[in-house]
Write a structure and sequence with these properties.
Largest interface: A-B, 43 and 37 residues
Order of helices and strands of chain B: EEEEEHEEHEHEEHEHEEEEHEE
Number of helices of chain B: 6
Strand order of the largest sheet of chain A: 3-4-7-8-9-10-15-16
Strand order of the largest sheet of chain B: 10-9-8-7-11-12-15
CATH class of the largest domain in chain B: Alpha Beta
Oligomer: heterodimer
Shape of chain B: globular
Number of domains of chain B: 2
Helix content of chain B: 10-25%
CATH topology of chain A: TIM Barrel
CATH topology of the largest domain in chain B: Rossmann fold
Helix content of chain A: 25-40%
Mean pLDDT of chain B: 96
CATH superfamily of the largest domain in chain B: Nucleotide-binding domain of ferredoxin-NADP reductase (FNR) module
Strand content of chain B: 35-45%
Number of helices of chain A: 10
Largest sheet of chain A: 8 strands, parallel, barrel
Distance between the termini of chain A: 28 Å
Order of helices and strands of chain A: EEEHEEEHEHEHHEHEEEEEHEHEHH
Low-confidence stretches of chain B: none
Number of strands of chain A: 16
Structural class of chain B: alpha/beta
CATH superfamily of chain A: Aldolase class I
Mean pLDDT of chain A: 96
Number of domains of chain A: 1
Distance between the termini of chain B: 32 Å
CATH class of chain A: Alpha Beta
Strand content of chain A: 15-25%
CATH architecture of chain A: Alpha-Beta Barrel
CATH architecture of the largest domain in chain B: 3-Layer(aba) Sandwich
Largest sheet of chain B: 7 strands, mixed
Number of strands of chain B: 17
């Protein structure tokens, strides 16, 4: 019997597909809809201390091989978000709470609130490429990453996942910093900092000028990051970036990921994507006589 | 993928007080009720229903904010940028249908009458606050033998809401379906009145939107994405939504009253 069940640092999921942060995860009911559509777990939108409206439109550009977005971290603030988490958890979903802040103490405070709301793990957004003072601006400095992870680890008992940016040449040092500080898992990658100019209008399309590129265009970057990190850390890695099919997921798994996150694929393929990826992986395991997906993790490494 | 398209405006028409239609060539297949995202460089990008679906398509704007005022000032020969079409539009139904339009909602509904092109099968109720704000009355008469109007102040047609008018029309004849667009409070009352008369229908909703492609979650109502699962929903779907007719999400995702 082929099993898709995975255990990421103590978080057990029936399958390896996770709804990525920032994708329909702003309300409890939409988190639940992704879970019911077949996701093994769902990550919330990144939540901060206070309500934030985000940037004005355009916040998304559709490109042939992906999306470019700069939403600007819109979120209702941690206090109002409790009821959303509760709704998803009560509905049976395994919820991972994503948080963002500009300093370690606030990350710790937000994570502790998320734990109280009932999430199964927290994910630290150290990788949003387009919000000044947040995300990637912190996540490219191994010292800062270490400090944040240490502070969060002290404030919660649930697993701490750290979502990293590919927009750095120091990805190995940063992955090592996460591990050294006691981080339980690394999620890689967030979007790639990018922009698009309308030649007709003669100006950048996104209101924020810069945004993050996602979708099939970034998959080879994500696979490379996971592969590099797998060689230097022992903690589990969750792969993300451009996964739309079971073959994409398997590529990340062979690179070293134990699970995968899906985001843009929902827009391009629909919510059925979770079931399709899982079905394909299961069929692959059966056809090869492999009992568990875990046997394939990192097998592309010599 | 919906490539951002720059289109030259071929015609502009003043439809009523504060309403203007922009016509342009847009060579894509669109269902009645589907929408496009219109980019106003340097200002915003906003969802707009297409009000004309033939070879020369159109949007009908109500000049209420900065974006719509800029769009309203565009002239023949100017260009505008749109992407789409998005969402689930109105279905092509077979049966006697009452189209109900509240204010600017007429823009999303009129293409249904054009598509049906069967004067006997479609009746149309158009409501507005006052006479000057009634739109598409003449256009409706091209596709239906029974076009009625209502105004809140009684300056034209029946005095009262378009829901009152629709109720009256449902008493007069038996309809198989309602198809409607307008303020959500109107749609919510209409859904109830329709039910009382045993008429089910489709209703087009409006929400704050960002991506248009079903990923950002800004426009969700009870877990359904208005941009992708809607904007047109069946009454039966709306009845199970606790937010319908009551609340929506602001730009930060906080729940607020309609």
């Amino acid at each position: 019997m082929a099993s898709l069940r995975v255990n990421v640092a103590g978080l057990v999921m029936e399958n390896p597909t996770i709804l990525g942060s920032g994708i329909i995860g702003e309300t409890g009911e939409s988190l639940l809809s992704a879970y019911k559509a077949g996701a093994g777990a769902v990550v919330t939108k990144s939540i901060g201390l206070e309500a934030r409206k985000g940037y004005s439109n355009p916040t998304l550009v559709e490109l042939p091989f992906g999306y470019l977005n700069a939403m600007g971290l819109p979120n209702p603030g941690i206090e109002s978000f409790g009821e959303e988490v509760l709704l998803a958890v009560r509905g049976g979903a395994t919820v991972i709470g994503s948080v963002f802040a500009s300093e370690a103490e606030v990350f710790a405070q937000l994570s502790s609130k998320m734990e109280a709301f009932g999430v199964s793990a927290v994910e630290l957004n150290l990788s949003c490429p387009h919000a000044s003072g947040y995300g990637m601006e912190l996540g490219v400095d191994p010292g800062v990453v270490r400090e944040i992870v240490l502070a969060v680890k002290k404030s919660v008992t649930i697993p701490v996942f750290v979502k990293l940016t590919p927009n750095t040449h120091r990805i190995i040092e940063i992955a090592q910093a996460v591990q050294a500080a006691g981080g339980d898992s690394i999620v890689a990658i967030n979007t790639v900092k990018a922009m698009a100019i309308s030649i007709e209008a003669g100006r950048p399309i996104l209101s924020n000028i810069f945004g993050g590129l996602s979708g099939p265009a970034v998959k080879p970057i994500g696979v490379r990051c996971v592969y590099e990190m797998y060689d230097v850390v022992d903690i589990p890695i969750i792969g993300a970036g451009g996964i739309e099919t079971w073959q994409d997921a398997l590529e990340y798994i062979m690179a070293g990921a134990v699970a995968v996150q899906i985001g843009s694929g929902i827009g391009r393929r629909g919510l059925n994507i979770f079931k399709e990826v899982n079905f394909g992986l299961e069929r692959y395991l059966k056809s090869r006589g492999i009992e568990s997906l875990g046997e394939l993790v990192g097998t592309a490494h010599a | 993928m919906h490539k951002l398209a720059f289109l030259r405006i071929k015609e502009t028409v003043v439809e009523g007080k504060g309403f203007k239609t922009l016509r342009f060539m847009f060579n894509r297949k669109v269902r009645p009720g589907q929408f496009v995202m219109v980019w106003i460089p340097g200002v915003d990008e906003i969802p707009m229903s297409l009000s004309y679906l033939g070879r020369i398509k159109g949007i009908t704007i109500r000049e209420v904010g900065e974006s719509t005022k800029i769009l309203g000032s565009l002239k023949v020969g100017d260009s505008m940028a749109i992407r789409g079409p998005f969402g689930r539009g109105f279905e092509r139904l077979s049966g006697k249908t009452l189209l109900v339009c509240g204010g600017a909602g007429a823009a999303a509904v009129l293409p249904i009458a054009e598509e049906m092109d069967n004067r006997e099968r479609v009746d149309i109720a158009i409501g507005a606050r006052t006479k000057d704000e009634l739109i598409f009355e003449e256009r409706s008469k091209m596709y239906s033998d029974n076009v009625r109007t209502s105004t809140d102040d009684g300056s034209e047609g029946c005095e009262g809401t378009v829901v009152d008018l629709a109720k009256h029309m449902m008493k007069e004849r038996k309809y198989d379906f309602l198809q409607a667009c307008g303020p959500e409070s109107m749609l919510s009352s209409l859904l109830k009145v329709g039910k009382e008369h045993g008429v089910s229908g489709q209703f087009s909703l409006e929400r704050f939107m960002r991506c248009g492609v079903g990923i950002c979650g800004s426009c969700v109502i009870n877990g359904k994405r208005v941009c992708t699962d809607g904007p047109v929903f069946w009454g039966e779907e709306l009845e199970s939504m606790s937010d319908f007719g009551r609340s929506k999400r602001d730009e930060s995702g906080q729940k607020i009253g309609l």
